[in-house]
């Protein structure tokens, strides 16, 4: 009897601990009934085990697929390791290496010197947050950068560099072929479907989303003060970008998109300060942990500092420059930015301290958008869903079937009439509650640059 009572109280205790450790709400696999129409609509694009699948097969596949998707994060981290090797300045005094100058850099010994410096940095990381993370990453790959052979660490770095070079070449070819077929701004198809999942993020998607919200407002599709509940799927973490002109490691890793979205919604009058809640969905423990820690600091009244560098040598269009100048004004106050190292002589910098209450309005949840949807934290009917969900540079990592699942999951979490905004074309499947209602094309014209960014509005 005593043992039974002890076990019961231990269970209660464990339950209590788990509740404390978990975010406030959680995702659960999409129910079979909701997924069946997608399975029936795509018999050819389905994994073999899902043809004629019932509920049990669906759930078994979802569990396995969830693991497979999350396993892609480590590969994305190894890609980041390569970006760090080429562009990082926090572990070396060597010049940065552009991918297209790799051969020259190798001949000149710069690559070798960077590899050696990174190997020593990984051996003695000090308090360099990035080196400490990469040290752990290498251990998960069977390399011990501290006690192991430095030559083995160096080889590991170079092998990953070779892999990334080869992958980029193949991707460029795939992108060219896709462009020949589609050539519409939203059509990147599933370009990255077999790539590691990267956490890269920059100001550009935040700018495109603000332009899209402005467009939706001017068309009367979003009204003043209408937005109270929003979600960002996959906000990412700026560790060091894959594009040289936005690849920085002189400030702590940061997330931008949730704060930029909050800022845009206030600037455009679509939401009111204090009555906006923002959910952050991601599968990366690094993203979730980063936001959790920011919330813990905010609970002690410490704001979140965003570093906003701008490479003046990069040709930004005037609208983007104006956006960069005002970014964060609605959610915080300007503070002195961290001074960039001398190597970045063309950087103009700003920094903003985001108010603690804005940080606390951002709630991170571990949720795999391909397979899961949020279970409502409220039992009553007051939780009718999100007004708006943002998902940029995420669906491109999945094939059409998985994109259709993600669209259905996002749709299930939206209010009727709500929007999912994404810079990817998602498949319109029969029986889906979501339709592409329009596209905002954001011209990106500046001397020497002409790129179009496009954001689709998927409406429930
Ligand atoms: C390339 S980053 C994009 C960051 C940001 N949205 C942007 O556009 O700059 C992709 C983000 O999506 C997250 N992600 C990838 N697959 C996901 C999934 N199935 N469910 C939730 N988050 C996912 C990654 O962890 C990462 O944070």
Strands of the biggest beta sheet: in what spatial order? 7-3-2-9-10-12-11
Strand content: 15-25%
Radius of gyration: 23 Å
Helix residue percentage: 40-55%
- Structural class given helices, strands, pairing? alpha/beta
Distance between the termini: 55 Å
Any overview of this molecule?
The protein has a seven-stranded mixed β-sheet with strand order 7-3-2-9-10-12-11, sandwiched between helices. It has a three-stranded antiparallel β-sheet with strand order 4-6-5. It has a two-stranded antiparallel ribbon with strand order 1-8. Helix 5 packs across helix 7 (about 150-180). Residues about 1-25 have low confidence and may be disordered. It folds into two domains: about 90-180, no CATH class; about 205-460, 3-Layer(aba) Sandwich (Rossmann fold). The chain has about 450 residues and is an alpha/beta fold. The protein is built from 13 helices and twelve strands. It starts with a helix and ends with a strand. The site of S-adenosylmethionine has 25 residues, from strand 3.
